[in-house]
Amino acid sequence: MPLPRALENYLKTILILEREKGTARSLDVAQALHVTKPSVSRAMKHLREGGFLTMEKDKRLCLTDTGRAAAEQVYQRHCALKTLLVSLGVSPETAEKDACGMEHIVSEEMLDRIILFIGKEVSV
Known about the structure:
Elements: H1 5-21, H2 26-33, H3 37-49, E1 53-55, E2 61-63, H4 65-87, H5 92-102, H6 108-118
C-alpha cells in the first residue's frame, strides 16, 4: 500500500537532512518542512509503526532499509522531475516547488521515460 504524500515528504526530508547534516532529528524535520513539532511527532509515530524508521535514545531519526528505499525512490522522482522542468526552461525555484507536488503521482513508467529523456541516470 502506498504511503500518504505527507509521510513520503517526511521520509524524503529525513534522507536529505542525513545527507546534509549527517543526522536528522524531529526539530530539524519540523524546521525543514515548516510544520509543528506535534505534527512531526505524529508522523514519526506512523513511520515507526510502519517499519520505516527508528528513533535512537539521543532522539536521532534513523531510516530502516525499508524507509531508506522509500525515501530514495521519492527523492529520485523529485530529482528527475526537477531536472526535466529546469531543462524545459522553468526557473529552479519553480521547478523545485512543482517537483515536490508531482513526485507523489508520477508512475514508474513515466519516471523511466523522464530519465531516458533527460539523458542520464538521476542520482539520489
